[in-house]
Amino acid sequence: MKKAVIDTNKCHKCIVCSTIKQCPVNAITQERKYIFKVEHPMIDQNKCVGCGKCASVCRFKKDTVIRIIKN
User: Fold this and answer.
1) Is residue 11 a contact partner of residue 40, using CB atoms and an 8 Å limit?
2) By the number of CB atoms within 10 A of the CB, which of 6, 8, 39, 68 ranks highest?
3) What SUPFAM superfamilies does the entry give (predicted)?
4) Domain containing 53 — which CATH number?
5) Partners of 70 in beta bridges
6) What is the per-residue pLDDT for 30?
7) pTM score, two decimals?
8) From CA 18, how far away is CA 39, in angstroms rounded?
């Protein structure tokens, strides 16, 4: 089974993957520690089906921010 993984060191926190709602199982959430501070998106590995839609909408594909890996 495949799963999506976000490299938090490369993530630009643009929130596109979590706001476009491409994920068919709603596995991506946007974490916020403070009202005005946006953290990187989180992928619920229990929900993720490895479809790769989040990786396809990532604006920073060349940086390989979201990878689909075999579990």
Assistant:
1) yes
2) 6
3) 4Fe-4S ferredoxins
4) 3.30.70.3270
5) 2
6) 81
7) 0.81
8) 12
To the nearest 10°, the Cα dihedral for 55, 41, 7, 43?
-70
Find the mean pLDDT for residues 3-22.
86
Taking only the tens place, the pLDDT of each residue in 25-69 is: 999 988 766 666 777 888 999 999 999 999 999 988 888 899 999
Residue 16's pLDDT band, with cuts at 50, 70 and 90, is: confident
Strand locations in 1-71 (E) = 2-6, 28-34, 37-43, 66-70
Domain that holds residue 45: 2-70
Distance in angstroms (rounded) separating the CA atoms of residues 61 and 42: 17
